[in-house]
Amino acid sequence: MTTVVGSRRLxxxxxxxxxxxxxxxxxxxxxxxxxxxxxxANAYLTELYSILPESLLVVRxxxxxxxxxDATVELLGVPADELVGRPVESISARLWEWLVSSGDDARxxxxxxxxxxxxxxxxxxxxxxxxxxxxxxxxxxxxxADQRERRQLELELRHAQKLESVGQLAAGIAHEINxxxxxxxxxxxxxxxxxxDLLSLVDLYRDTLATVELASGPRTRIxxxxxxxxLEFLQQRVPQAFARTLEGVDRVSTIVSAMKAFxxxxxxxxxxxxxxxxxxxxxxxxNEYKYVADVVTDFGDIPLVPCYAGDMNQVFLNLVLNAAxxxxxxxxxxxxxxxxxxxxxxxxxxxxxxxxxxxxGIPEAIHHRLFEPFFTTKPVGKGTGQGLxxxxxxxxxxxGGSLRFETTPGEGTTFFVRLPIQDxxxxxx
Length: 429
Description:
It is a single chain. It is built from eleven helices and twelve strands. The chain is an alpha+beta fold. The strands form three sheets. A five-stranded antiparallel β-sheet has the order 2-1-5-4-3. Strands 7-9-10-12-11 form a five-stranded mixed β-sheet. Strands 6-8 form a two-stranded antiparallel ribbon. A hairpin with a 4-residue loop joins β1 and β2. The chain is rod-shaped.
């Protein structure tokens, strides 16, 4: 009897063990599947987190950075392991102030800010939310949208609007100057021709006077009048005065033509004579370099280039003005003039323009920042930091070319503008 009871108990125990084993297997399988799903979810979230175009910061309530995504690393130029654990105040004092003021309140906010990156301040728009997860401590999630491109576009738009306004004003002034200069030139040429005719008549009168009998009174009076008006001097100097006057009229007309060329920036690409654009630039900018530098030009035989003529005029003007200012800065206190050299040539399917100066050169420490918007080494009131940034945008982004420089501190700098001859997107007639 005892044996039978023991056998039944053993049988029941074995059944319970089998049931437990099946339960353990089921639970293990469920845990494995759950863990697999969790890993896939984590991998998906990690990938999504890393490829988001906007920068993301996860910030603890004590102000320390808990996590960053790849876009944040790229934006700030700082490795992720150096950012994690750092106080958010080191990136943005304003963001830190917002976090302090928000306390434990769950709220969403958006505002403009500047983050401190390796290359300097970076304009961003922040979207901030406070999250209270079921597990772990509450956190702030900060999304930052880089505004540098938008600001650059706004800068270029304002610059284009300014150019258009200045162009309209210059066109009006050029027209108003051109009209009186035309009749001044016409009248000067008329007077020049008439005076030449009068001199011929005076010479005839004097020759005739030498062969006729004339009373001493009139002859004496004629001699006195010739001395009084200094006829010999007039015969020599008046033609020169007319020639100088007409030279001045031609120079003003050239300046007016250059102003009119600069006055119409245009909104379409047109086949442009780059050599003429360079010569026009030198005419317009003459007052900036004539006292500090001698100009050397070496314009090659180059084809017309499809470009936005007004924009390229502005690029060349920026480079010439920078060159003149660099020469002036180097020669302060020296009795010497610098050299400003403009060249153009064809290089395969490109036209290359170089603008060289014998100025101060560019320190190596700022080479990487030279084309940044608003970056300038000039004193307040002398430079805005927009010229080279806009020139770079015009040459590279609008024309598919390149803008680079070579420099030797203390000796000078050369900028190279490289423009494609063919523009597949534009048909030129």
